[in-house]
Amino acid sequence: MPEGDTIWQVARHLHTALAGQVLTRADLRVPRFATADLTGRTLLDVTPRGKHLLARIEGGLTLHSHLRMEGAWRVYATGERPRGGPSHQIRAILGNAESTAYGYRLPVLELIRTAEESRAVGHLGPDLLGPDWDPAEAERRLCADPSRPLGEALLDQRNLAGIGNVYKSELAFLAAVSPWLPVGDLGPDVPARLVATAHRLLETNKDHPDRRTTTTRRPGTPLHVYGREGRPCLRCGARIRRADAEPGNGDRITYWCPACQPGPTRTDP
How confident is the model at residue 108 (pLDDT cuts 50, 70, 90)? Predict the structure, then answer.
């Protein structure tokens, strides 16, 4: 599931393959930009911003993409047959003499002026893996609406950019609070601790392909609660529970330990 650490890895992979090289192939398979000709331009860099990707191209252009749940970028040697999915799922192709990147199932793909990148990502809060990381500002934004459930506040990219569903569930567990507890009901030191833990986990995992939030090395236990419905909590032994998304309320699938995380809960009908 693409979250801030995953996007950081994708950006690094794309940057290594494409940055500093002249584009010999550029194909944007979305109607609005299908006629854009980027060949002959140098791809300058690929930068992550929260869960967004910004590929900056010579001439003041930026290719902005977002993977959401299903999107992916795959890099192959130029001339090699891509294997990331059926060809009709390819939304973008960027290639040079040595490497070619294919963007599959990209729900967001647009070519914008680099000077206008703020239109695409200016709404984001401090980036957990970015040079603008500001824990005090992230904490302030997280607590701005005291009545908002913690899980929703963590997922809101306007508060801090890079947290997705996995880290939402894991951070609530590590803070020993319910994901549905209003942020105003958190203890006085909990928001700062949550922000610091989020930064530490993403920094640690950005350099590792297998995400881990636990310290145990037992097989099958990289995460405390996410994806572990019905299995025993690694801390107390209680059964991990799961609540699926409620349409229209900004919530998403959530895992939690009812014993370790006291407070309000939500279960499906």
Answer: very high
The tally of CA atoms less than 13 A away on the side-chain side of residue 21 is 20
pLDDT greater than 70 at residue 1:
no
Per the annotation, the verdict on 51 as an active-site residue is yes
Active-site entry in 51, 56, 91, 148: 51
For the record, the structure tokens of 244 come out as 């699926």
Domains within the chain, CATH numbers bracketed: 4-121 (3.20.190.10), 135-256 (1.10.8.50)
Pairwise CA distance, residues 94 & 108, whole Å: 16
Active site residue 2: yes
Query: What are the tokens at 267?
Result: 């279960």
For tokens 């960027």, what's the residue?
Answer: 94
What is the maximum alpha-carbon separation in the chain? 60
Which is catalytic among the residues 105, 235, 242, 252?
252
168 flagged as catalytic = no
From 2, 48, 149, 191, the catalytic residue: 2
- Model confidence pLDDT, tens digit, residues 9-31: 999 999 999 999 999 999 999 99
Among 3, 139, 152, 170, the active-site one is 3
213-233 residue pLDDT tens: 999 878 889 999 999 999 999
Point out which residues pair with 54 in neighbouring strands.
47, 64
